[in-house]
Fold this protein.
Amino acid sequence: MVSKIVECVPNFSEGRDLDKIEKIVQPLRGKENVKLLNYEADKDYNRVVVTVMGEPQAVKEAVLEAIGVATELIDLGVHEGQHSRMGATDVVPFIPIKNMTTEECVDLAKEMGQAIYDRYGVPVFLYEQAAATPARKNLAKIRKGQFEGMNEKMKEDQWKPDFGEAKIHETAGVTAVGARMPLVAYNIDLDTENVDIANKIARCIRHSNGGFRYIKAGGVKVEERGITQVTMNITDYTKTSVYRVFETVKMEAKRYGVNVLGSEIVGLVPMEALVDSAAYYLGLYGFSMDKVIEARLME
């Protein structure tokens, strides 16, 4: 039995070519002490979010192999999509799940960062809890400028990578590796094609503009469906609930005559985040994870 369990959620900049996606996730299948839990591709974002869990070193080696495949197959010089990106493997967060501390995930992130550069020549930034400086804790600040502007950005002393030379990999760009608690990747659909409205609503809810403390958000247009989304990461669902964000977006949308069509979770989500919202919408008194059968079985 595995005594320590870590989760890793690498994001790869490919959401349209299913053959490439399958090749990227293949190294995560059939490995001892590694379980591929989920992978979701989005054509508009042109991105696939992968969730893998298992013994820390086994997960690190399996994900490192997948990063190698992505480095071979993805060329950011021709990549287009709604989601901001700076690397073929854009981000690699490690999340403590069982008998793991954040500090151990930080150590794992540093090992991974060094290995990515040594093996594939892709420069690496450390972010969130693994960040070397406060300025690098926020992933959005690291990613600003994206692939196209990263070479120029890395000429500045404060933006030299933590691992590797201050020069992007010609096709794979740069990668951010970090350690963090579980987050909720959450999108809310609006019945408008006007992305300006989605962006205005995103500005109301995100922390950087005076909104909720643990929200990073933006607006995107989903061409295929003829809608826009307020797309976000809830970085601490215990402090900012999913239902609170959803209700606020509904309220803000009304001022523009726009309706919320629904919402989606990208990747996996902690049960506690949904239990909290269920208790709110059902008006449950004194409800908690202690009353969830699956949670008791896992004790």
Remarks:
- The longest helix spans residues 102-120.
- The radius of gyration is 19 Å.
- The mean pLDDT is 93.
